[in-house]
Amino acid sequence: MTEAGDILDPWWKRWFINPILKQLTQGISADKLAWTIAIGCAAGIFPVMGTTSFVCFFAAVYLRLNQPVIQVVCHTLWAAHLALILPFIKMGQWILGDQPIESSVSTLLKEFFTNPWQFSQEYWLPALQGIFAWFLVSIPLVFIVRSITLPLLRAAALRIERRKVITT
Predict the structure, then answer these.
(1) Which of 57, 89, 137, 144 is the most buried (most CB within 10 A)?
(2) What is the C-alpha to C-alpha distance for residues 136 and 105, in angstroms, rounded to an integer?
């Protein structure tokens, strides 16, 4: 595709789909890529502000997943990450039988950026409760995302392989 064509591509294709498909052309298997996307989706919504890139980095290192793809997935989910922090905290508090915090995302963000140290002292327990709920949700999420992406990636890998055969 020409550079002019690249400019006209929708943002989601240019910044999400194309980097993933490029990995298929460089030899990563569809299965490994599906696991990378699935783990990236789960780690990308980890309910602690400012940690998702680190969570994705360490998950990719530990599980030997593709670092660029997991980071693309993680950064694509930034809005979902912010939107899900409070629901995860409240879900964790409900599951564990604790009183839910009376706060909004905008209030949490303001407190976080005003004084991160004070914020961490006040919200460490709700954060742990949110992590507990996230963990319960992330396990099925990983398997659901993998089961959706694997057939799509296998089909894309097959098309890429066919193109290689035709052009050679």
Answers:
(1) 89
(2) 22
Q: What is the pTM of this model?
A: 0.82
Residue 79, both tokens? 């809005």
Using alpha carbons only, give the angle 86, 59, 22 rounded to the nearest 5 degrees.
105
Q: Are 92 and 123 in contact (CB under 8 A)?
A: no
Phi first, then psi: what are they for 158, rounded to 5°? -65, -45
Residue 21's identity, in one-letter code, is: L
DSSP assignment of 101-116, as one string? P---HHHHHHHHHH-H
Q: What is the pLDDT of residue 3?
A: 52
Distances (CA, A) of 91 to 120, 129, 135, 166: 19, 8, 11, 53
Contact criterion met (CB below 8 Å) for 130 and 92:
yes
Burial 74-101 (b: 16+ CB within 10 A, else e): bbebeeebbebbbebbbbbbeeeeeeeb
**24-79 confidence digits (pLDDT tens):** 777 788 999 999 999 999 999 999 988 999 999 999 999 999 999 999 999 989 99
CB 127 within 8 A of CB 47: yes
CA distance 11 to 48: 27
Tokens of 102: 């009376």
DSSP class of residue 99?
Answer: P
